[in-house]
## 1
Amino acid sequence: MGRSSFLKKERQSILMDKLKEDPFLTDEELAEIFSVSIPTIRLDRLELGIPELRERIKNVAEKNHEKVKSLNSKEIVGELVDLTLNQRGISILETDNSMVFEKTKIVRGHFIYSLAESLAIAVIDAQVALVGVANIKYKVPVHSGAKLVARAEVKRKRENNFIVWVNILEKQTEVFRGKFILVSISDKSSNN
Amino acid sequence: MGRSSFLKKERQSILMDKLKEDPFLTDEELAEIFSVSIPTIRLDRLELGIPELRERIKNVAEKNHEKVKSLNSKEIVGELVDLTLNQRGISILETDNSMVFEKTKIVRGHFIYSLAESLAIAVIDAQVALVGVANIKYKVPVHSGAKLVARAEVKRKRENNFIVWVNILEKQTEVFRGKFILVSISDKSSNN
């Protein structure tokens, strides 16, 4: 009892640090890190007042969705958990059965594409941004239930032209990568 | 009266021919061809027992949707009005306000992408076909209400690899083109 409660305090302290580094660790991943059961992690979170992952993502995403200029909040596919306009962004999508081919339970390409396209548009610091060209590659089939993490990086900005790279990971595996060329249209009375 | 009823018979006969050539002419387009009003065309169709365009598309599409192996009928985006497996296909999508960016009323890229991807998969003669690579170009912004006609052509088939080109027209203008590389997976007990 003495030892286990020492371990528990230590674990909870490390758990706080871990979640500060990466706020989107799942209970499953945390359980693996500490070699404890998932219910133990849940209890830890409860005691520490840390909400469940979905709630943590929503909280962070809300603030980022407000930063986006080129899309309305409800037009964003996925939850934006990080965003620096004209530089980079990260969004998360939890896939489910509504997104899969019935026969294979593989997530349909256009849901993955929508996540990537939506993020590529969201990072642009302009009222309107349209995709001109996209070169995309689906590397590994994604199954229902997978949590996809999309990262976008603005690679080049020249006047109103942007090149944005997006890659999407499931756990540590890259499942998709794409290069998007976008054109921004400024708010009003620009030179057109 | 005599002259106008002669004209009407003549018009209705040509109208039948025109719709045999291109069953997807709109009432508006027909009205332009004959320099008459749209209600006149509607009356002609009524007298000739020709259903409205949407109905004509649905009737044709139903038969084509049955031919598709790689997708379930409800998974197809757009109405397939022509399909020859492993060769070519045509599908039609009527865009609406649910598909647009709120700010600009421009149809969101991923709806156009979905039409193209869905058609590229549908033309493949296999139980399962997945997109590996897509290189796509949005050429002209599409507005709500536009009727999009997507054409796919299987350009190359090598074992279980397919290259499919899709282009999408609105009226006579190309608004999108894409090259898709797909991989088919055969039904069962193949060599994997």
## 2
Amino acid sequence: MRTRIAERLGCDVPIFAFSHCRDVVVAVTKAGGFGVLGAATFGPEQLEAELRWIDDHIEGRPYGVDVIIPTKYDAKAEAETGRTDLHDLIPPEHKAFMKRILDEAGVPELPEDERERVHREIMEGRGAMTPEGARKLVRTALAHPQVKLVVSALGAPPPDIVAELKQRDVMLGALCGKPAHAVRQKEAGVELIIAQGTEAGGHTGDISTLVLVPQVIDAVNNEIPVLAAGGIARGSQVAAALALGAEGVWCGTIWLGTQESELNTFEKEAIFRARTEDAVRRRARTGKPVRMLKSKLSEAWEEPGAPSYLLPPLQGILYNEAHARVVRAQRGDLFSFPAGQVVGAMAGETTVKDVMYQMQLEYLEAMERLVALQPKE
Amino acid sequence: MRTRIAERLGCDVPIFAFSHCRDVVVAVTKAGGFGVLGAATFGPEQLEAELRWIDDHIEGRPYGVDVIIPTKYDAKAEAETGRTDLHDLIPPEHKAFMKRILDEAGVPELPEDERERVHREIMEGRGAMTPEGARKLVRTALAHPQVKLVVSALGAPPPDIVAELKQRDVMLGALCGKPAHAVRQKEAGVELIIAQGTEAGGHTGDISTLVLVPQVIDAVNNEIPVLAAGGIARGSQVAAALALGAEGVWCGTIWLGTQESELNTFEKEAIFRARTEDAVRRRARTGKPVRMLKSKLSEAWEEPGAPSYLLPPLQGILYNEAHARVVRAQRGDLFSFPAGQVVGAMAGETTVKDVMYQMQLEYLEAMERLVALQPKE
């Protein structure tokens, strides 16, 4: 399944792995795929450290970086970023609501030192999620010559970033959930579209991958490559994506269950326990719809009388602090983590190598099945 | 793409067409596919007339009938069916709400004679939607020897129906939206599972076709054939479905735009105008989630203060009377018709023959593309 995009980027198979975990990025890339580090929650210093580690382990192979350049953003939060503690911009009503959910469920507060550490990490990451913060991340990535792809998770980036990537011959990708987005992204200079269906984990739209991919390919006149994202975790789904005309697949959820993943045992067990129908789209995590495991925490925000959602980054700051409390208390009933609908088919820990092998094996089986249906010459 | 199910049922290609329109059923079957008449809105007498017409035109080929055997049903409505006018069981608040939407939008009332005709047709159809009504429909279908497949749209039918079909050697199919449904259906004697993704028109669940199909195949241990439904209207999507392991595809929305379709020009134009994101899941039409074109009518029922939805068949009776008013007034802004997400790619009138030809042509192109990616021997 060596497609044009695999040739262009220099990987063996067009299996793109989105992960916040450097170990996954390295392991996928070394297994012949293309790892993409989700950098949105890092500050520039941490990203620099992660990329240096990847450079040291990836044996000269190419990889990618994914940044979030938000289009909808709380303007006051942006203006104040770096000057004030963004946490202070969260309305007291929202803080009280989140606190009440956790207090009533008997989830202990974080110890002071851990609270401060979590708070600092979130602030570094969220500060990077402003347009200016994203620029810094892109520049950090560009200093690493093995970074051959930069992906913008929320639409086309501003022209200065596009120009800088072009100059350095780094490919620019963007995620899209509607054909109209793809048209705008192509016009803005995006060279690789990741058509992400509603079944994906994380920020998603309404349109399913099966419907979206052919529409996006048509929308860009098949002039730039399109990857399929959402609902892809096994070989038959890879074959389906290529049948739709995608040049490769973009997978995220499946890596969460690997040994290499950043999740701890409690978090992995919640993932393995989850059914497909538990991965729902909710706004509690960032203020925009994110497909994630539903829990008492996510559902409380859907109840009548709950406060309205905040804009990014404030909802995310509020949510992530609560999430840290939930994870520390190992409370599965309140654990909401971004995951796609493929989560229902993940039953136990694997390795990146296993996943890559099984995917390609099942892909070949699917191809055999398809070829057997062809009329004999 | 002649799969086992195509061989078993005696069609050339495993493209199953669900339609309420006998002309579509005949045209698809004559073009090598397998037409399935959606009989849920017919009374037994009308179904008998439709099937007789199909028998007269289908040139001895096999076809199918789809019935709705409801699992959730307003018990009072069922007890009263045939004895009282079901319309009288609809609470006055609900009637007043629906009337107010249309009155305020300036939609004229139906003339008295047309109101009576619509009312009579709905009652005949809805009466058939009780468990007992569905039995009558199945018996009507079984009197037609070219009916080789009976499909139950809402889960496994009761054991007496299963036994009767088996005795007559008519295949029994059922639609499912979750792997667990498929397991129960197989245990109940269902021989063909139609795994229907959330992107489908009509009653749907949450899980996308790309995720659902492999899960359902695994759930039934690949022991009975599975068709993919939802998001399939073109050849690349057919190829994707077969790549997933489906033995064929089940399409509904695409036929609405054909010359043969039962829709009038006003209705077809609304279909061609609709974008993918206009096909949303709402409960206004039957009381259960149905993917349909959104309109002021469907959205009014989602507003705070709207009455709660009625159980089948009462919500459907209320909705269908309003719908007849909307269609007569040709009010596109209030027109909500069941349609899947593929609706966004339908831009103008076609014929059944065209659709069948294009689907197979694009399927072959997709196969060529896939085969070209295979390593050379």
## 3
Amino acid sequence: MSWIAADWGTSRLRLWHLSAADELLDARSSDEGMGGLAPAEFEPTLRRLAAGWEATTVLTCGMAGAKQGWAEAPYRPLPCPPLGPGLTAAPAEGWTVRLIPGLSQAKPADVMRGEETAIAGWLAANPGWDGVICLPGSHSKWAEVSAGEVVSFRTFLTGELFAAIAGHTVLRHSVGGDEIDAAAFDEALSEALSRPEQLAARLFSIRAEGLLSGLPAAAARGRLSGLLIGAELAAARPWWLGREVALIGAGPLTALYARALAAQAVPTRSAESDPLTLAGLVTAKRLMEGRS
Amino acid sequence: MSWIAADWGTSRLRLWHLSAADELLDARSSDEGMGGLAPAEFEPTLRRLAAGWEATTVLTCGMAGAKQGWAEAPYRPLPCPPLGPGLTAAPAEGWTVRLIPGLSQAKPADVMRGEETAIAGWLAANPGWDGVICLPGSHSKWAEVSAGEVVSFRTFLTGELFAAIAGHTVLRHSVGGDEIDAAAFDEALSEALSRPEQLAARLFSIRAEGLLSGLPAAAARGRLSGLLIGAELAAARPWWLGREVALIGAGPLTALYARALAAQAVPTRSAESDPLTLAGLVTAKRLMEGRS
């Protein structure tokens, strides 16, 4: 029987249709993320996006398992392998839907939902790998993996901070557009790494330089991005200093992290997150069936 | 002739009606701040709020003089006294309207509009005073005053950061209500002062503790406030270490700054900002007329 693998995040839903032998048959995505859905809307949303696929078994990771999601999947406490036994059933008439639990860390308090599946995909592609994984995003994650287990991780609000500051403070007048000036990014990154405590003052300077000397929007945006990623790297220093970092992500944001880490002489290996998440979902399916 | 003193900020407008001898006759305020007004709307807004007052001379400080305000008043570069000659005229049929210029600092780039008038009011009430002034707010300011001149200042985005994070990130689920738990504030303040670079990670911990251990909203709000004010104090350390600080502001926010500085054994003298701004406007009027 074919089946459906799903990555149901806060803002996006990705579906893959796979054969019984886990070969990719089709893929679809939509912006119907968990953030915009009431619990009763998950089932019809899934049926609509999967229309025409002959599959009634669904395995999903991500925010569909959050408290405000389709059904609440518990967190598995560290240390533990990224995937394990124990899936949560979600209600869907005539279908079998299973949610992958997230991971939790007691101290410092932290949680993840979805990234554990990408980490499992990374380990499936790199058996026996030990080291540090960084997953840039709205909530960037740094995770330490050892002997097949996630032993610690830390989440940074960096991506959401960028959006909140660029959209909802006086800096919105300064950072318009999508372009990032690389030199401004590099300079701000270096400033933030050397004096991370100056963040709130440096943020206002972006506005002041716009008023006093006409700082261009791409430079202002580069500065904001450099300050925030620099602050994250300053806090995450023990994770990357003298290490190789596996960067799991996609697009311009992950490229900025690679650039920032390269500037600290940190070697990185990059991988796209979607294929790794799919590989993790396939691993979870095999675990579920005792095939692993 | 009686006249009108105005403090036209981003979100609020305050008007005072004063006699020719600068005695207070009446006061009014509204939420028609500069942020919600087009340039042509300033004059009718003023006439409506001042209806019935027999005065046609208006002296205003604040964001009415911003580029997007009533008329652009230039910045005066540091070092300089908080008020000086050179006012900008704004168009108003049959009225005399004058805007007080803001102050600018070249390096680090910084600007203020309105706080210079409160600082002038503080100096009018404390002649010959030298020292550090902190003005908490959406854009907190720290200013060094010496021999009647503002010699340097620094703006922190702290208040706007609080609003943007509390309203537009995942923390909005955690920090509802208005209450601030004082113990949570104190603990977060101390954490932020000792390791300010951990800000972005500590912010996400507020959410994680809400999910994992049901952190109450007042504690989450106290934590967020303590982290952000602590980050500001960490960056502003050279301004307050071993000094007395004049705190100019109002309400619960200024009380939090007083509490935070007291925890660092920094003596503070507090003053309400509205009366000081009015005193500064009166000083500016006398300067304008050569009466000072």
